[in-house]
Design brief:
Blueprint: H1 13-19, H2 25-32, H3 36-48, E1 52-56, E2 62-66, H4 76-92
Antiparallel strand pairs: 1-2
Domain Transcriptional regulator HTH-type FeoC: 13-58
InterPro entries: Tscrpt_reg_HTH_FeoC, WH-like_DNA-bd_sf, WH_DNA-bd_sf
Protein name: Transcriptional regulator HTH-type FeoC domain-containing protein
Length: 93
């Protein structure tokens, strides 16, 4: 998905990714007119803070998505497990 519109320049990486989920680091860098290294660094910081998640795309690269789940819960299955475990523990008491 190549986006090379100058209208995106001036947006932050997070703002851009929120509107264009599933893009690679290179695609985001090209669209925002930033270097690959700077976007990779920003995405790494966002990932470490739980703001974005990365998955493999069909081409074998990494696709980035905004994490819409609560902090520390980037995996919906893990969230479900933790919720059910909490319910079981409360029922046992």
């Amino acid at each position: 998905m190549a986006i090379t519109n100058d209208g995106f320049k001036g947006q932050t990486v997070f703002e851009f990714l929120r509107k264009h989920q599933g893009m690679t680091t290179a695609e985001i860098a090209c669209a925002l007119g930033k270097t690959h290294a700077s976007v990779a660094g920003i995405l790494a910081q966002l990932f470490n803070h739980g703001r974005v998640i990365k998955t493999s795309n069909p081409e074998g690269g990494q696709a980035w998505y905004v994490n819409n789940l609560p902090f520390g819960c980037s995996n919906p299955t893990l969230m479900l497990f933790n919720r059910l475990l909490t319910e079981c523990r409360h029922a046992a008491n």
